[in-house]
Amino acid sequence: MKWIQIDRRTSATLLCLFGFALPLSLPVAEAFFFLALLVGAAASLRGQSSFCFKTAYLIPVLLFIIVALAGVIWSSRPQASAGKLHRLLFLLVIFQIPAVFNRADSLKIDCLTTSFILGVAIKGGYDLIRIPLYVLRGGALYDAGSMTDPQFYMAAICVIAAIHGKRALALCPPFDRFSFFLLALMSSISGLILHFKRGVWISTALSIGLLLCIKRRWRTIAALCVCALLLYLVPQVRQRVAQLPQEFSEQQGGRWVLWTKVGPELISENPWGIGWHATRNEDFLNYAEYVQPKLDHLHNNVLQITLELGFLGGAVWTGWMLWTLWFMWQAYRKCAVESSKYASLALGVTAAFVALLLNGMVENNFDDSEIMLLFCMLMGIANWISQRASSSTA
């Protein structure tokens, strides 16, 4: 590793590459992430601080790690749980981001955020070509999308909506700031629509609405409502919305059955949990007349994690997420009081986190490696913003 300089700047560069690759390829993103951890650990051994554990985030994260590790001991499928424990390393990005960015010898947090938005924009452009071609070749429009990709578009839209028009992020040529964010926003919106995932649509609309209310952009809200009504006139969109009641049909074997029958009964029979990421489709078959084939989760973060890690794990995870919301909001308020240029970024990160949690009410997204990494990256950025705001007021 002589060609790799062991310092904070190298860790920051690798994390920027991780943020860029995350929407595009999980294996590539994980490679950059784990390499950043190795470089960070080596830098720490050389006396450079590459992880910042002096933060209020430490306690809730440690509690979740303890519950996940203990779950291997008392779970009914310890082998399945143990095979997923490497994902606990994802949580280290929460503590690495504030330690390596915006130092004199490192990159700035702007680079990480811009890299992520650039990756999402490229993904959106790819889907703008891929999905129409898939349909033209005879594929079903509603089968062309995925559950993961539109959540990246959702997060990027929230961040862009908060920072657009502000001098919050620096960007190098060949694009000027306005052109880049406009193209990224259009690409993300196109990808969001073409995936036809109703939960992500609703979560994005609610989170953006909340963001704009906080910023008091009433005209923008009215304009977006008009755009939503125009979008509803598209036959495919109207048909997709009309299919929503099917999720509440027992014959469909979808979310309503999982939330009201399968989930509660399984949880009551396994109060200590089945094991992290250890649920299978056959676990659900005895609790409903029909469950969708190959479905192995409950389409809800709280129910799924409670089933996996027991009532204790569900309580710890829920408390962690609620505490994070308060933490992010406090970081935004501190920046707003100081008129910091990062107030808009803090609000965008909070809105993106809210959107992920809202979507997590109808989709088990925290157990998805890509989205778990996105959760952690947003928490890491908020951690950095909070520490910056605290140091400036000290």
Helix/strand class: mainly alpha
Shape: globular
Uncertain spans:
166-175
**Could you tell me the mean pLDDT?**
86
Would you list the SSEs in sequence order as H and E? HHHHHHHHHHHHHHH
SS summary, helix count: 15
Q: How many β strands by DSSP?
A: 0
Main sheet characteristics: none
Head-to-tail CA distance between termini: 39 Å
Q: For the CA atoms, what is the radius of gyration?
A: 21 Å
Beta-strand residue percentage? under 5%
Percent helix: 55-70%
Name a few traits of the molecule:
15 helices, single chain, mainly alpha, 394 residues
Please sum up the structure shown.
By secondary structure, the protein is an all-alpha fold. It has 15 helices and no strands. Residues 166-175 have low confidence and may be disordered.
Account of the protein in words:
With 394 residues, the protein is mainly α. It has a domain at 111-248 and 291-393. The chain has 15 helices and no strands. It is globular and about 60 Å long. The chain starts with 7 loop residues before the first helix and ends with a helix.
List the helices and strands and how they pair.
Blueprint: H1 8-21, H2 26-45, H3 58-74, H4 78-82, H5 93-100, H6 109-136, H7 149-163, H8 177-194, H9 198-215, H10 218-232, H11 235-242, H12 255-269, H13 301-337, H14 343-359, H15 369-393
Helix pairs in contact: 1-2, 1-6, 3-13, 5-15, 6-7, 6-8, 7-8, 7-9, 7-14, 9-14, 12-13, 13-14, 13-15, 14-15
